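Re: that chain you flagged

S.,

Sorry for the slow reply, it's been a week of failed gels. I finally had a moment to sit down with the sequence you sent. For the record, here it is as I used it:
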Amino acid sequence: QVQLVESGGGLVQAGGSLRLSCAASGRTFSNYYVAWFRQAPGKEREFAASINWTGGSTVYADSVKGRFTISRDSAKNTVYLQMNSLKPEDTALYYCAAKSSNAPSQRPTTYNYWGQGTQVTVSS
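Prediction finished late last night. Pasting the structure tokens below so you have them in one place:
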């Protein structure tokens, strides 16, 4: 069992940056594949980025590629999402999710553990 807590969301102008953090407690976080998803009002939850156990392999949605960077610090049991060049369409509730299998996945249903989410709002 692992518990996830997101932080770092907020209100930012278009073109600005934010760094989200996903802190884990419970089990060794380095044995979990971790992803960031986001959900805008009235829309389905969508994949943003993911990272494998070692941090050596990452996957990005086309909509964030080149602007967002996912990373992990095993010593701190934390995964980060650095978001640059933010756009109003990035506005959403951002969730951290984890699963024990190291296979990449963009489907929310494959993730066992979820945080409560952190709100990101980008003004135009």
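What I noticed first: The chain has no helices and eleven strands.

Talk soon,
D.
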